[in-house]
């Protein structure tokens, strides 16, 4: 059936900020769908709160609103834009839950808005665990024994009828949030409370646990004519009990017979029919008992899911694009597969290769959290690899993780001295490192069946790995060794290494196992004798991507890569992308002219460079990952686009940078470098406390600390001594020791330069006090509290530094202002985390312009030939960070110099107060939905600083609550307050006033905390209940501005296309 032309405009709801369980795969899906609908002539209206996404670029939709994803904001957008329909299935669980709430409130009906892809009834059946269970059992699909609880008491009763262990599954959640396995009554009490907190509908399914069963996922698409296809079958390497987002996964399915697979396939299609999913993509999950083949359906997601991006990249089948087109009336037989250009979408993809996904974790940033994996997702990113065999693909995936491992044969020093009992424990308990413990056991010739019994991992996978360890390199051809997962690092013989590289060929991901010609150059390397395509002789540029998402190097850098590729294509270059991340837009099949899905390690990158012989290689866009390859690229004779290797060294080498700043009359805090612990102690002694310690060549403040005294220094040294290879900062280069400037205002500057002229794109002022990592801070553009003379000095010093460095391309500079004086903290000659934010709110395409500057263009030429730098805006924009505290319940929410944020949101408005109000709302703090109360709990040193601001709250008729010590101090200063007890005292306490919504904000100056202190409990509960927490006078005053303008917020909304 042709597209539905009764519909003229469609609202797409995005997924919001990057959080664990809902990351940039939804940016990829939303971008793909928006492009598809626009190409069909629909007017696309898009709402999302995340400024770092390609999805929210002005060109992706006709009207883009970067606004909080709350019912009130979306309702106002619907009233303003009057869309005919809404597509709720592309923005993850956030969009689905919002659509259901708006439907229940009658907003869609009132405004004549149609739900596309799935009805509210179908979504409710799929997401309501009990309705889903009943629907499946009615058509003969087996489910697990379960009880549906709508209250804590009902949940506790469930243990009596089912027995332990119990699996808890809240309704309407993402990433396994709130799920858990309870083995006894005490665990059930705690985890049941968490489950009800996680469910927006206060409903929890309590079912028998199938921990240790095998887990499978099917990505399914169907249309209104009843056609259905299985896009991809995915098998979890790890058993049930580990969230699929945290599990190593393999595609296609490896360990089922064809008969078992076909039955599962039929049940997945029947599931969609039964639920009533009219069109689009869904994810269906099954568990199979390895002992007898007994099968149970676990759940289905009636939307494009996290695994949809993986399935799309694994097969080349654009699930989100087709889901959008099916939703407006097309059927699968009418849509053409872009990869082949000839086959219809009803042609099920076929893989003649093996794909492996491995998640990436950041547990070292959350030291209070045990890294045992469970049913609630905790990974922050993932990598994907493609090769001919499981073991070759597994090796490539391990190399892609960027954790210092070269492959499956890489000996892990953590386990080499473990005795049998220790190693058995490591294999039995699912942790990110378990795979390496398994390698050690296989290296020791442990029986595969014993390892399988300990880990519950299918013996087939273990036997394939065992073959790699059993191979004798002197007797095995290198072509076989490569298929078994061997790498250059595993061989001693130079000739064998050369032969191993010579056997590398490049194959196409073509969706059809080479049955039809592929028109899209989407390539992977493997062992073989012939390539599937040839390198062109066009003028070409290779962009090296940012690899897996991690805290400190996330979607912002992929955004920069996509813009760089776009600039190359728009200006006549062949753009080639190398990356290993399946979640991102940069690895979509039609982003670059050619895509290599490869690890970003030097061996694989060098092979692509040798094959393509590019005119230039761009390393400025992908964060720290490509910068680490700079010297290898330079030494191999390839041209690094833009700023040279000397520029990189001048900013990273503390001595060189210090001399440069002195020559330009730019002040710096006192600093030293330390190559080992002895030098570190001496450097601290010379500078004096407090000091800021930070490693070289890292992102996200990894292992960065403010050290106030000798005890804290010794604690830091202990952490270094106990760290593994990936956790020791000395591994990346010298440790930088800086004087820590207190009571400062921090500034970010993003600019581009051609070596002779400089274009300052944005100056951002941080709201939080000194010592909070820039990625965790609230950043405001333009600066809101700095006088014009200081802004002029910032501009002058930035220009001087850029020209002295001879920057060609991008530069980010961080300054601090202390007592009216300007100090430089650091400079990074690459894309920054804030550049997408700056580009989005100013309208100036600084990444695209910077890419051309790297290739020799001048700023003047860019202004003449493009529209990249011709925008201005009068709006105020505020970026607020989003944190994964709900996934790491043992962590304190206190911020410091090591970055903890996973994502960000944007508030934009005519006034500072409205912009901040929106930023708070987008971050989960809706100002005005609680009583006018402020809770003040201050350290002795900070108490005098807050008298004036507390009086401002009193003037606005806020009730003042305070702890005993703070209340006493306030009373001495003629301020009356309501005294609250400690957390464990009788009500009112510091916790009950938060639980009872008596306060809107906590003013808390934190000291060292752990989970036993009141401060820790106050901050945790405030986060969980949407109460603002501030720790400085600046933040407390800013909150008041947001509070005062709350009535204006919904009237101050404008599409981003009209902002600049």
Describe the structure.
By secondary structure, the chain is an alpha/beta fold. About 35% of the residues lie in helices and about 20% in strands. The chain is built from 36 helices and 38 strands. The strands form seven sheets. Strands 14-13-10-11-12-15-16 form a seven-stranded antiparallel beta sheet, sandwiched between helices. Strands 31-30-27-28-29-32-33 form a seven-stranded antiparallel beta sheet, sandwiched between helices. Strands 17-18-21-20-19-22 form a six-stranded mixed beta sheet, with helices on both faces. β30 and β31 (about 820-830) form a beta hairpin. α1 crosses α10, α14 crosses α16 and α31 crosses α36 (about 1035-1045). It is globular. The protein starts with 8 loop residues before the first strand and ends in a 16-residue tail after the last helix. About 55% of the residues are buried. The mean pLDDT is about 90.
What's the pLDDT, averaged over the residues? 91
Query: pLDDT under 50 segments (min length 5)?
Result: none
Distance between the termini: 40 Å
DSSP summary, beta strand count: 38
Proportion in β-strands: 15-25%
Question: What would you report as the Rg, rounded to the nearest angstrom?
Answer: 28 Å
Question: Strands of the biggest beta sheet: in what spatial order?
Answer: 14-13-10-11-12-15-16
Helix/strand/pairing class, anyone? alpha/beta
* Major sheet description: 7 strands, antiparallel
Share in helix: 25-40%
The global form is globular
Output the number of helix runs.
Answer: 36
